[in-house]
Amino acid sequence: MTGATLHDVHFIEPARTRNYLNVDYGVWSWLLTRDHKRIGILYMVSASLLFIIGGFFAIMMRIELLTPEGDLLTSDTYNKFFTMHGIVMIFFFLIPSIPAVLGNFILPIMIGAKDLAFPKLNLLSWYLYMIAAVMGLVIIITGGVDTGWTFYTPFSTQYSNTHVFGTTFAAFIVGFSSILTGLNFMVTVHRMRAPGLSWYRLPLFVWAIYATSVVQLLATPVLAITLVLLMIERGLGVGIFDPALGGDPLLYQHLFWFYSHPAVYIMILPAMGVASEVVAAFTRKKIFGYKFVAFSSLAIAFLGFLVWAHHMFVAGISVYAAMIFAFLSFFVAVPSAIKVFNWTATLYRASVSWNTPMLYILGFIGLFTIGGVTGLFLASLGLDIHVTDTYFIVAHFHYIMVGGAVMAYFAGLHYWWPKITGRMYPEWWARLAALLVFVGFNLTFFPQFLLGYLGMPRRYHAYAPEFQVLNVLSTAGASVLAVGYTLPLIYFIYSLRFGRKAGPNPWGAVGLEWTTSSPPPKENFHETPVVTWDAYDYPAMMKAVGDTQNV
Amino acid sequence: MMLADFPLFPEQASSFARDVDTFYIFLTVLCGTVSVLIFLVIFYFAIKYRRTPQNEVAQEQEPPKALEIAWIVIPFFIFMGIFVWGAWLYFHLSRVPDDALDIYATGKQWMWKFQHPSGQREINTLHVPVNRPIRVTLASEDVIHSLFFPNFRTKADALPNRYRTMWFKATKTGRYHIFCAEYCGTQHSGMIGWVEVMEAADYQRWMAGGAEGSLASQGEKVFQKYACHTCHTIDATGRGPVLIGVYGSTVTLSDNTTLKADDNYIRESILNPQAKLVKGFQPLMPTFQGQVNEEDLLKLLAYVKSLGAMRLPPGAAPQQPPAASATSTRGTP
User: Fold this and answer.
1) CA dihedral A533, A535, A540, A541 (to 10 degrees)
2) Where are the beta strands (DSSP E) in B192-299?
3) Is the model's pLDDT at A421 over the cut of 80?
C-alpha cells in the first residue's frame, strides 16, 4: 500500500460550506423542517429527555430497593414509578430510539436518497410523538398512573383510580407515530434506492429497519384497537375484558401481547442492524453470511407474531395452547442465534478496531447472548412456571432491551456522531463510558436472575429480608450505570464545539453515508450516487484507493 | 461470606422442586458453556486480529455454506430437546393426582383466603400435610392475582369469575413463603403469607380444632339460606335438576351439546344460570351474580361436590326430569 488509506475513500466534490445544519437558522427552521436529518435530531433531543425521565424513575426504584422495607416511597408512588418507567422507556424511548433517531438520519443517506418518501408525514410523526410525550408528562406531573405498563384488566379498567385513560390515550397516539414512521421507511426502501443499489447490496441496517417497519405497520394497529377497547370499558362501562361485566381478562392479555411481543422486535431488530453496520465497519470486512443475516431479520419479524401467548403460561391458557406457543418460541431463537454466530465469525481474520462503537457492539453481542439464552429458560414451560413474574423476567428483558437495544443505540450514536455533527467525540472518555456501562449493567441485572430464581416477585415495593444482599448489589450496579450514561451526555455536548473535525470518513468505512461530507449537505449528495459495489465491499474500496494512487 | 449464606436456589420443598432445579441447572450449564465459548472466541479474534499498521485491511474469505447450515440445524435440534423436557415437566404439573386433598383459595386485594374441606378458614396462612398431593382451587374476588409458592416451584394466576386448579405435594415440613406474583395494586408486595407444611398427625390435630363444620356442611347452610333446596330437591320432583351425582358427570344441555360438570360449570350455573341450560328444564332460576360472595360460592361448590360423590338409586337420571312429571314448570340448575 502506498500513502493512501481507507480514510481517503470518499467521492465528494471540494468541500462546500453549506450543510444541513447551517443552511437555515431559527426555531421555525427546525420545528417546520421536512429534512429527515433535522427530524432525526428533533427525535434525538426529545428521546434523550424522556430517557432521562425514565432513568430517574429507575434510580428512585433502585434506591427504594436498597432495604427490604418500603421506606423511601409509599407503595402507591413506587407502583407509579415502575409503571411510568416502563411506559416512558418502552413507548417513548426504546421504540423510537434507533429507527426514529438513527434510522431517520442515516437510512436515506445509506440508500442514496435525498430524503424519506414522505417528508411531511415524517414531521407529522414527530409531532404525534411530541403530543403524546407532553400528555405523558402532564400525567406524570398531575399524579401519574399505577397499572404497570401492561395495563392488565380488570385492574386498569375497574380498580385503578389513577390516570389510566389519559395514559392509554397517549400510548394510542404515539402508536400512530410509530406506524407512520414504519410506513415511511418501508416506502422509502422500496422506491428511493440509488441507481444500482439492489436489495442484496443494501446495508444490513436497512434490512433490519425494513423488517422493523413491517412489524410496526402490522402490529401497532392491534395495540391501538386494544387500547380503544380498554378506554371504552373504563370510560363507558361496556363489558369487554372485565368478567363482572361479562368480559374476559385473558382476551385483553392476548390482544395486548399480540402487539407487545412483536414490539420487542421493534426494539431489538434495529439494534441488530446497528450491530451489523458497526461490526462490518470496525473489522473492515463483509458481514459473514450477509444473506443469512438479512433474512434472519425478516424471519424474526414473521415468527415474532406467532409467540405472544408465551407471556401467559401461568395466566390460564390451556395446556395444549401453552405447548404450541412454547414450541414456536424456540423457533424464534434460531434466527437470533444465526446473527450472533455470523457476527462472531466476521471477526475471523479481520482488522478489528477497538474504538468505542465496536466496544459497545462487542458488549451488545455478549449481553444479547445472555438475554437470548435466558429466553430459552422462559420458553421452557415447566421452568417458566417458577420464574415468570419474578426478577428473572426483569433481568431477562433488561438484558435484551438495555444490554441489547440501548447498547446498540449508543454504539450507533458514537458511530454516526461524526457524520451527524461533523465532529469527533473524545475517544478516551467514550471508551471509559462504554466500560462503565458494561460493568454497571451486569452488576445491576445479573443479580436479578438469581433473585428471580430465589423467588422474589417483580413489582414488589417491599421484599423478604433474605433478598437484600442481591438487591444492594443491583443498586450499586445501577449507580455505576448512571455514571456511564451521564458521561456521553456531557462529552457529546462538549464535542459539538471542541471536538476534532471529523472529515467525511473518519472510520475508513464503506457505505454511502461515508461518501458525503460531514455534516452532509441538505440534499445529502450533490450528485445522485450510482452504486456498483456490494455492501461492505472493502476489497473493491481498496482497489479504488490503489487506483487513485496510480493516477 | 460463606457460600451457605448465599443460596442460589430456594429450599426444595415439593416433589416438583427437584425436577425443576435439575432442569434449571442443566440449562444453566448448557447455555453458560455455549455463551462462554462465544465470548472466548470473540475475545480471541478481537485480540488476535486487532487493527495494527500491518493489519489495516481484513482478509476476505468466502463463507462456507456448511458452517451456516451447521449453526442453524444444530441449535434447532438442541432447542427442540429443551422444549420437550420443559413441556414434559409442564404436562406433569398439569395432571392433578386423583387422591389430592382439596383446598380452596381466594385472592382479594390484598390477602389470600384459604378454606379447607373440614371447614377451617385462614388468611395469609395455609396449613397442609406433608407428602400428600394438594389440589388448590383458585379464584379472585377482584383483579388478577397469582398464587406463588417459590419453594414448591409453582404458581398460577387467580382470575376473577373463574376457577383454576393447581397442585403440589410438599415433601418437607416447615414454613415457606406465599407471594402474590401478579401485580394487583397498592399493597401487591404485602399480599404475602406462609404455608405451614405439617406432619400428617399434626395436621389432623390442627384440623380437629375450631371449625364450624365441614366446608360442605357450611355449603349446605348457604344452599338453604338462598333457598336453593326448594327447586333442587333430592328427588326428581323439583323445578330444577337433582344435584346428586351431577358433579363430574356429563350433562346434556338444551342445545343438545354435552359438557363435564366441573368447578367452572357449577360456578357459572349459580351466577348466570341461563348461560348453559340443562336439557328439559325451563330458564326459571334467577341469577346470583353479585349476591353470593366468593367464600360462599366455594362453600356451595364444596357442597355440590359432596353431593356429586353420592349415587342415586339405579334408574333415576338426575339431569332429566322423569317423563311423568315433565311439565313446563321445571327450572334450571
Assistant:
1) 110
2) 193-198, 250-252, 258-260
3) yes
Report CB contact under 8 Å: B157, A333.
Answer: no
The DSSP symbol for B2 reads -
Question: Cα distance from B174 to chain A (closest Cα, Å)?
Answer: 17
Angle at A520 between CA A131 and CA A24, to 5 degrees: 60
Asked whether the beta carbons of residue B185 and residue A79 sit closer than 8 angstroms, the reply is yes
What residues in chain B have per-residue pLDDT under 70?
Answer: 1-5, 210-212, 309, 311-333
What angle separates helix A407-421 from helix A249-283, to the nearest 10 degrees?
Answer: 50
Amino acid identity for residue B199 in this structure: E
Interacting residues of A223 by C-beta distance below 8 A, sequence separation 6+ = A171, A172, A175, A256, A259, A260, A263
Q: Specify if A376 maps to a domain.
A: yes
Nearest to A148 by CA among A172, A164, A125, A127: A164
Q: B58 and A542: CB-CB below 8 Å?
A: no
Q: Please classify residue B225 by burial: count the beta carbons closer than 10 Å to its beta carbon, then call 0-12 exposed, 13-18 middle and 19+ buried.
A: exposed
Number of folded domains that form chain A: 1
Q: Which CATH number is A249's domain given?
A: 1.20.210.10
Chain A within 8 Å of B55 (Cβ-Cβ)?
yes
Q: Which CATH class is domain B8-50+96-211?
A: mainly beta
| Grid cell locating A497 | 464545539
User: Which one of A1, A146, A453 has the shortest CB-CB distance to B24?
Assistant: A453
The Cα-based distances of A402 to A55, A257, A276, A399, A437 in angstroms read: 12, 20, 18, 6, 10
Domain ranges (residues) in chain B: 8-50+96-211, 215-325
Tell me the pLDDT tens digit for each residue of A258-284: 999 999 999 999 999 999 999 999 999
Nearest CA in chain B to A543: B57
CA gap A525, A92 in Å, rounded: 31
Query: Which tens digits make up the pLDDT trace of A21-65?
Result: 988 889 999 999 999 999 999 999 999 999 999 999 999 999 999
The domain of A46 spans 33-550
B288 within 8 A of B269, measured Cβ to Cβ: no
B262 membership: H or E segment, kind and range: none
Element (H, E) at B101: strand B101-108
Domain B215-325 CATH (choose: 3.20.20.150, 1.10.760.10, 2.70.98.40, 3.20.20.140)? 1.10.760.10
ipTM field = 0.91
Chain A residue nearest residue B154, CA to CA: A386
Cα atoms found within 13 Å of the Cα of residue A255, Cβ hemisphere only: 20
